[in-house]
Amino acid sequence: MSIQVDHDAVVVGSGFSGIAMAIALKAAGRDDFAILEKADEVGGTWRENRYPGCECDVPAHLYSYSFELNPYWSQSYAPADEIQDYLLYCVEKYDLRRHLEFDSTVQDAAYDDETGTWTLTIATSWGTLRTIRTRDVMLGVGALHEPHIPEIPGLETFAGELMHTATWDRGTTVSRKRVGVIGTGSSGVQIIPPLAEDAAHLTVFQRSAPWVMPRSNTLYADRLIDTFEQHPAAMRAHRAKLKATSDLRERGITSAPKLLKAASRLALENLHASIKSPELRAKLTPDYAMGCKRVLLSSDYYPALASPNVTVETAAIDHVEPDAIVTAGERHQVDVLVLATGFDPLGSYRYLGIKGAEGHLLSSDWDAGATAYLGVTVPHFPNLFLLLGPNTLLGHTSDLQMIEAQVGLVMQLIRERDRRHLKTVGVRPQVVPEFLAELDRRSKQTVWASGGCDSWYLDEEGRNRTLWPGSVAEYEKRTTRPEMVDYHFA
């Protein structure tokens, strides 16, 4: 029976995951695909996050595709604008623009058991609906762009300027204004220094003090850029060194926390050297093990907090009023309120109604926790592939390495399916429980579970369904040489 489809494959999302997947499809000669993007341009995380001070905390030469190295990074840690430009360059170089369909939000996806195809319902910002029928669906919907909005009583009553770091309006000015920032994670540590420079007064509402390591963001000299441009082997060697040294941190986080003691001492020395006030220093001293939350890199965060126009408030927020944040017994007047409260790692999936084989709903199957085999395939959802799915984010190095490994796995699976002249491929339900038990067992040994902190890495039951509890090298090995017996071809 001939099956009529609109596209052989549909890639959802045009951030790093979606673009990598599209490039791989094109390289394999599978040119009949569409890239659906909800916004009006590519970029994902780096399109959305444009707040002051926004940079990547992974070295630029590692936070780029291994097959598309960029000699032109201006500094060791790239700012958001440069990363977005890099993605735009990749889109043009690999001729992806003609595959892109903007203003296309996937509302639901339904699998047809008889034909082995997916039907996607897509909405535009104008409210119109259309459907696309496809054989394969690759979800590159991202994990770090759906803002997490804290549940604070009265937040909706705030009458001043209120924004999340992911929805920052570039026309915003805080000059001569009283500013409040809730959150001291990755985005908070980056946005606080520039806000402290301009605000009349800045109040930082800190729930727990982060571990902060000094960062040297070296500007690359023209001579070094020329060397990388003219001698790609030197650039590849530089990347390989970054990859090896970054992955070494994994053991300290996952199995041998004692290895982080030297780094902890360096972080505390940095704190003592930067903060002279004993009272402020006490507020900024972490009370949990390093690595339990993401270790942050900044050399201007502590100096900003020591500025005379900055207050660090550690008392819990009681409620929000139209012009103030109220903590225990104190009222902090603010004109601008910034939520540096991070992201919901599964936020994008929560808005997708995905119906798989035999009536399985992804949202229902994930009621007890988001799970996927190697973060890519889910039982009862054939020909559906996740990129940066559950348990594949990293806390110590570049997620792009995981993306490339996952894209490679997807290509192997669909190539093997087609070699067998079959319609579908999906993970066997029988292999997933053992895999999840392995993740639980290994996660219990990590500092995330034993370090004495609450973080978005763990779910409400304290289970890790976010990070990969191992090295990148191990994950690459398991995805490069997959056990085909773990998959069902039908």
Keywords:
490 residues, alpha/beta, FAD/NAD(P)-binding domain, eight-stranded mixed β-sheet, five-stranded parallel β-sheet, 16 helices, 20 strands, 31% helix, flavoprotein, oxidoreductase, FAD/NAD-bd_sf, FAD-bind_Monooxygenase_sf
- Cα-atom Rg, whole angstroms? 23 Å
Structural class: alpha/beta
> End-to-end distance, in Å?
15 Å
Number of helices: 16
In the CATH hierarchy, what is the superfamily of the largest domain? FAD/NAD(P)-binding domain
Please name the CATH topology of the largest domain: FAD/NAD(P)-binding domain
What's the CATH first level of the largest domain? Answer: Alpha Beta
pLDDT average, as an integer?
Answer: 94
- CATH architectural name of the largest domain: 3-Layer(bba) Sandwich
Which runs of at least 5 residues are low in confidence (pLDDT < 50)? none
Q: What summary fits the major beta sheet?
A: 8 strands, mixed
Overview of the molecule:
The protein is an alpha/beta fold and 490 residues long. It has two domains: 7-146 and 344-489, FAD/NAD(P)-binding domain; 155-216 and 242-339, FAD/NAD(P)-binding domain (3-Layer(bba) Sandwich). The chain is built from 16 helices and 20 strands. The strands form five sheets. Strands 1, 2, 3, 4, 5, 6, 17 and 18 form an eight-stranded mixed beta sheet that branches. A five-stranded parallel beta sheet has the order 7-16-8-9-12, covered by helices on one side. Strands 13-14-15 form a three-stranded antiparallel beta sheet, with no helix packed on it. The longest helix is centred in the last third of the chain and has 20 residues, at 400-419. The chain is globular, with a radius of gyration of 23 Å.
